[in-house]
Amino acid sequence: MEIMEHRGKHLGRLTASAKWFLFAVAADDRRRSVYDRLIAKARSSDVARRRDAVRDLPQPSVKIDRQVGFATCDPASFGGTEDVVDEVQRVSGTIFGDDAYAEKPYLADASLAADLSPSSPLLRFALNDQLVATAAEYLDAVPILSGIYALRSTHVPGPPTGSQLFHCDWEAVRQVKVFVHCGPVTAEDGPLTAIAAAASRRAKRYLRYRYGG
């Protein structure tokens, strides 16, 4: 049993590494699009179900223009944002350990999904019909919830580095990330900044941008 378990973990790491290489490392948008089509073909029945299920969702209260690639909205657009803020502030003192800034000295990142109960305000918000409908309209399919995280940014002297610089997230060709600010954010705090999708595509072509570093 121990040998089988060890082989399974080793195979899992190799598979993850292969996916990372094919989808992200030294990849451009053309290669990523090819890989995305292959994955969609391999999972065609699941993709078809998720696309058909969009019809059962309500009309989204917020629409994401695909030429822009993001949207900002009033907290009232989705129910439960105040509960999310209250919950994150309540647990913030316990979710970030001593090594929270080990990977990035300017950003602590804590995954919360594994410890959430069905009644958690964070999970209720993530599964809110209007939020799901907004993501589904942009993705052309009912989304898969891949994670719920708490992020805490802090000022570090020196020039910006890593994800503080403009970059493209590698996880999927098209994805939706929802950010809820749980504290005041001003221009002096260095707020999250985005570039419109059309401009981003032009910049990536000009720079011959590659994902994964």
Distance between the termini: 38 Å
Work out the strand percent: under 5%
* Percent in helix: 40-55%
Structural class estimated from helices and strands = mainly alpha
Number of helices: 7
Main attributes of the structure:
disordered N terminus; 41% helix; 213 residues; two-stranded antiparallel sheet; mainly alpha; 2 strands
Could you explain the architecture of this structure?
With 213 residues, this protein is mostly helical. It is built from 7 helices and 2 strands; from the N terminus they run ααααβααβα. It has helices spanning 2-23, 29-42, 44-52, 81-95, 121-126, 129-139, 197-207, and strands at 107-111, 149-153. The protein has a two-stranded antiparallel sheet. The chain is globular.
Give the structure's gist in a few sentences.
The protein is mainly alpha-helical and 213 residues long.
Task: List the topology elements.
Elements: H1 2-23, H2 29-42, H3 44-52, H4 81-95, E1 107-111, H5 121-126, H6 129-139, E2 149-153, H7 197-207
Antiparallel strand pairs: 1-2
